[in-house]
């Protein structure tokens, strides 16, 4: 069987809910799940721990290539230490976006991402799943939501009200990171011509998951 038929590539901007949707789709189909953003976040954290500047391409690429990371269910380990919460911080998200602009870093993480694919099948989420990592994926989806909705979801996740200064800060951070991801020269965030658009602004997680499963059943 052509293994590409068992790949679903889900790309989109940050805080769009694609991680939640992708992991639930993977569970429903019995596929593995790849959170590619976590690898960029781990790289940024590891560089910080090793005192390498996020713009030092050679040093960061070497660290990315030798990332001592493990995925244990929903927990993420770096050098044996649980960094699940540490990698989720907004500061590390910004660092991830910075190291993700470096071609050598992307190159260093490419095979590692492809190695997640086995006979079981894979749902991968990120920015370049459908364009670079799995260009022959059977189903490609560009999952998005308005910046305000994404900021509301992020605020809810960390227990903040969807208004006020802290909320405006979240919204501004989301917009800054979107802009950096869209404008970069390598693997920019962009809907591929063969990707189906899933705008989740007015959809629940369950509705979004169902939509993806319906599309997958149709191919
Ligand atoms: O998806 P998440 O917010 O965890 O990703 C963190 C950052 O990693 C993104 O802002 C993006 O710059 C980068 N990234 C990427 N390519 C991917 C996944 C994430 O460039 N496939």
TrEMBL record:
A single GO molecular function, which one? ATP binding
Species this protein is from: Neisseria musculi
SUPFAM superfamilies assigned? P-loop containing nucleoside triphosphate hydrolases (SSF52540)
InterPro entries for the chain:
Cytidylate_kin, Cytidylate_kinase_dom, P-loop_NTPase
EC code(s) of this entry: 2.7.4.25
Cytidylate kinase domain span: 8-215
What does the entry give for GO biological process? nucleobase-containing small molecule interconversion; pyrimidine nucleotide metabolic process
Keywords linked to the UniProt accession: ATP-binding, Cytoplasm, Kinase, Nucleotide-binding, Transferase
What is the protein name given in its UniProt record?
A: Cytidylate kinase
Lineage runs:
Bacteria, Pseudomonadati, Pseudomonadota, Betaproteobacteria, Neisseriales
Similarity remark: Belongs to the cytidylate kinase family. Type 1 subfamily.
> Which top-level enzyme class is recorded in the Swiss-Prot or TrEMBL entry?
transferase
**GO cellular component term of the entry, any:** cytosol
For this protein, what reaction is catalysed? CMP + ATP = CDP + ADP; dCMP + ATP = dCDP + ADP
Would the keyword Acetylation be found if you checked this record's keyword annotation?
Answer: no
Indicate yes or no for the key word Manganese. no
Q: Which cell locations does it reside in?
A: Cytoplasm
Top-rank taxon = Bacteria
Residue positions annotated to bind ATP are 12-20
């Amino acid at each position: 069987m052509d293994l590409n038929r068992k790949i679903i590539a889900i790309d989109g901007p940050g805080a769009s809910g694609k991680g939640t949707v992708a992991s639930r789709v993977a569970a429903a189909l019995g596929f593995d799940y790849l959170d590619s953003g976590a690898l960029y976040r781990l790289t940024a954290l590891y560089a910080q721990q090793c005192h390498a500047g996020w713009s030092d391409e050679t040093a960061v690429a070497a660290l990315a290539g030798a990332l001592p990371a493990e995925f244990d269910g929903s927990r993420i380990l770096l050098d044996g230490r649980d960094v699940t919460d540490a990698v989720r911080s907004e500061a590390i998200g910004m660092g991830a976006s910075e190291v993700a602009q470096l071609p050598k870093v992307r190159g260093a993480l490419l095979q590692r991402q492809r190695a997640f694919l086995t006979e079981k099948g894979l749902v991968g989420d990120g920015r370049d799943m459908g364009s670079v990592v799995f260009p022959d994926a059977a189903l490609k989806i560009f999952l998005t939501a308005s910046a305000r909705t994404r900021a509301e979801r992020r605020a809810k996740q960390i227990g903040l009200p969807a208004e006020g200064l802290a909320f405006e800060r979240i919204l501004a951070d989301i917009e800054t990171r979107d802009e950096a991801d869209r404008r970069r020269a390598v693997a920019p965030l962009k809907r591929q011509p063969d990707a189906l658009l899933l705008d989740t602004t007015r959809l629940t997680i369950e509705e979004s998951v169902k939509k993806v499963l319906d599309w997958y059943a149709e191919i």
